[in-house]
Amino acid sequence: MPKPPLGPATSLCMSLAARPGQFGSRFHNRLYELLGLDFVYKAFTTTDLPAAIGGVRALGVRGCAISMPFKEAVIALLDGLDPSAAVIESVNTIVNDDGRLTGFNTDYIAIAQLLARAAIRPETPFVLRGAGGMAKAVAAALYHRGHENGLVVARDEAKGRALAGRYGFGWAPTPQGLEAALLINATPLGMKGADEAALAFPAATIARAETVFDVVALPVETPLLRAAAAAGKTCISGADVAIIQALEQFVLYTGTRPAAEMVAQAAAFARAG
User: Is the pLDDT confidence value at 273 over 80?
Assistant: First the structure.
């Protein structure tokens, strides 16, 4: 069935990020085309989050993806939280039901799936860098898989200790001198923009690891993943997180779960952009 032309009945979905990319727009819009859905998706940035969320509500925007650095600040602007976001205290997805805005977190689903797919054992020691919204999703996924032996690395001691303490993990201010079998970067280090040349973990720490997981989705190959691949480590990419979490957002917005072949087509289309 062909996609209807844009018109008054077309549903709008969007994203808000400090550094908007085109992956989400291409992924969602491609699925709308493949399924013939009367939707359109557009990426935005903002310096006024309350006004932007007010626009989502007032204009009837069906769904809104939330990226760094808005995942925690947006909570106070919503009408309610799904358990997926309430437990983590971080939102990456807003669903608008006739003016009522509910926050969800599909990052958690994606991270848990990828850890399971990589057969990471619960007894595997880890170092998680970051204490923001994405780090909260990672920490919760690790905890719920049974991980106990881990450190949260964060320059902000209050935030780092708070996240670590919530799940019984340790805290460190920097990754210097640390080692663990599993390294996870949940910061903007390596993301396209001001931090794109930054290496989230020292080379010596990478050398002693077995698996390296970088949640940064753009670029697909971050400095951390390049260094890990060169050292022969198993790598998990933020691009894989982006596909899974975007699919779950798509389902929340449209009520439709695409076939796996369609998801693969949309992911390939989005990555080629």
Answer: no
Q: Which fold has domain 11-105+240-271?
A: Rossmann fold (3.40.50)
Q: What is the pLDDT of residues 155-209, one digit of tens each?
A: 999 999 999 999 999 999 999 999 999 999 999 999 888 889 999 999 999 999 9
- Written out in words, the top-level CATH class of the domain with range 108-237 is alpha beta
Helix (H, G, I), strand (E, B) or coil at 153: strand
DSSP letters spanning 120-132? --TT--EEEE--S
User: How many CA atoms does the CB half-sphere of 235 hold within 13 Å?
Assistant: 20
**Has 42 been annotated as catalytic?**
no
Per DSSP (E only), the strands in 39-177 are 39-44, 63-66, 80-81, 93-97, 100-104, 126-129, 150-153, 170-172
Looking up tokens 């993806």 gives 65
Q: What residues does CATH 3.40.50.10860 cover in the chain?
A: 11-105+240-271
Residue of 3, 42, 71, 192 marked catalytic = 71
